[in-house]
Each structure stands twice: as structure tokens, then as C-alpha cells.
Amino acid sequence: MKQKIVYTGYIIIAAVFFLYYLFPGDAVTSYINYQINSTSPDMKLIIKDLKPSFPPGIKLFATDLLHQNQTIIGADFLEVKPSYFSLFSKDKAFSINGDIYDGSIDSSVRIANITADPEFDIEALFGGIQISQIPAIKGLEAYQISGIADGNLVYGNKEVKAGKGNAVITLNDSMVQFTPSLFGIEQLEFKSINADFEIINQRVTLKKIDVASREVSGSASGSIVLRNPINKSTINIRGEIKPHPTLIKQLGNVFPVEMISGQKSKTGGIPFRISGSLDQPNFSLR
Q: CA torsion angle for 240, 189, 130, 32 (degrees, to 10)?
């Protein structure tokens, strides 16, 4: 009896060993890319390494999702696990958790009608993400943005075939550096930025964004129409800022203080507008 247990244990360990070290990562990666490309010809997934995990799942290392050969988002490590009960049903469910830009992501994905045109829903929580490492933000030339992002995202294509969702993001300890300087200001630091977005197809509607810092506070709303490449996306955002004494002093080197005061609305804020594209935005006080 003991001998049978030993042999059984040996077989299990050997199977696990060979499954892990001889796992056909390249073949699985090629299959995943084939399925993604069948759904959207412009999308491609690059995975440096792929291994099975236990309980049954897949570990992905150095993963990048590309759209028309431009990296949209990447992750140092992801672990994908199926909901075992869903494997026997029409709708499949998975959890995807991992490390992304020095932060973490915890998400669930539900896929129905697995064909060339599947329906899907995604719910994700993320935290501690260094946004300065995100490729689309890294590529901006007129300004550099840094900060730590936390938030949640809900996105799917059941209501709108091209995709619809909402995102709520909080950015802490953030900074914007302008190149060249904006109205004589080289950088602005923010204690917190809170934003609420709606995403439908290629249009991102900024329902509201609130900013607070030692130098300025304010709010805004507007829209961003996504283009390819992403830094060519067009912006139309309007809002009001309330400069604090430190910023008023800086602006006073460019504009007369009376002019700044004359721009104020009834609420005490200065109206502003941001237009143009992400890589070449136009800032105006009006």
C-alpha cells in the first residue's frame, strides 16, 4: 500500500515538473494572438514568457497589449485563472490579477458567445500605479505627468458593440511639468486629482475632474476623442481654476495682477479651456 502511494506521488510530481518546464508557451501565445487577431485585426499581445500555475491557471510575464503596433498597456506579471464552474456553462469567467507599473490590478472578465465576435464584460480595481511609466503618457512631449493612480473600471460591449464603460480614478502626489513652460510656469504639483469618465467607442467623456493643491484648485469637464496614435487624440475641456497666492505670484511675472483678477467669474474662479491634441494641447484663459 505504501509503495503504491509513493509511486502515485512520484507520478504526480513528475507530471507537474514536466508540465511546468515543458509547457508549450510559444504555442499557447500564438493561439492567444490568433484568437485576439481574429476578433480585432489591429490588436496584438506580446508575452515574454508563459507558464502554468496551480491551482490551474496561466502566469504571464512581461505582457504588452498593442493596437496597430503601439503599446496600449503592459504588465510585469499577470495570473489568469478560470472560474471552474463557468467552464461547464456557455458564459466563461476568469480572474486576472497581477503587477502593473509598480502597482497592482485585480479584475474579473466574463465572456459570452465565444465566437469571432464575443460579448464581454470587464470589472477591474487597480492601485499604486505609477502613471509616468504608461507608454501613452511617456510619449507626450509638451508635458510630463507623474503620480500614483488608484481606481476602478467597468467596460463591456453588450450595450454598445464597439464598447462602453465607466472609470473612476484618483491621482495622488502628482506633478505636471511643462516643456516649454506654460505662462511662465514650469511645473504644477497636485495633492489629489479625482476624475470620473464615461467611455463609448472612441470617445471619452470627462464627466468631472476636481484638482486640489497648494498652488491651485479647480474643476473641469469635457471630452477626448481617441485617435491612433494615442497622442494625436483630440481634446475639448473647459473648467475653472482658482489660483492660490503662490501661483498668482508666478502668473504675475507674465500677466498684470489686475488682468488675472479681471478674468475671474462670479464663483471666484478663472475660466480656462484646453483644446488641440494630447501631444500638442492649447491652453487658454477665457
A: 30
pLDDT digits (tens, 9 = 90+) for 182-200: 777 788 888 899 999 999 9
Please count the other Cβ atoms lying within 10 Å of the Cβ belonging to residue 241. Answer: 19
Closest by Cα among 75, 184, 93, 183 to 130: 75
Unique residue bearing C-alpha cell 502511494? 5
Asked if 95 and 80 count as a contact pair (C-beta separation under 8 A), the reply is: yes
Taking the C-alpha atoms of residue 135 and residue 51, their distance in angstroms, rounded to an integer, is 26
Contact residues for 190 (Cβ-Cβ < 8 A; gap 6+): 147, 171, 174, 175, 176, 211, 212, 213
Question: pTM value?
Answer: 0.79
